[in-house]
User: Fold this.
Amino acid sequence: MARVRRKPKTKVARMRDAADLLFRSLLRRRDGNRCRLCGEPASTVHHVFTVGCSTATRYDPENGLSVCVACHCGCHSVRAAEYLARCQDTMGMEMFRRVRERHRQLVHWRVADWQEVYDTLQAGKCIQVVDGERVAVEVT
Assistant:
């Protein structure tokens, strides 16, 4: 059987992948490597507001929760509404509304922007987009 060749990733895709790893590491450290929904050991980070629709909250620490495999699967299952309610309870409604507003911003990042995002994450900070501008924030 012939092997399927994949196209090489673009520079932006490679930077985004590396930045995603850094972001997950920062949030898991913030949360003591425990699932914020059930307390079990965390294996990944769940974005409350999906990253596929908006870059604005991709690296926003308020949009990410460390979760275990079971809870992450629940967040993307037929029980997603139940898990969204648990995320809201964990975050608090005020923070949930703030992140939702930031998530609605349209943000387009160029290659240089991705490099800056990566460098910010490498320095141990995350990114929030406020009024269309990137702001480096501490992970608390």
Remarks:
- The longest helix spans residues 11-30.
- The chain has one domain: 11-138.
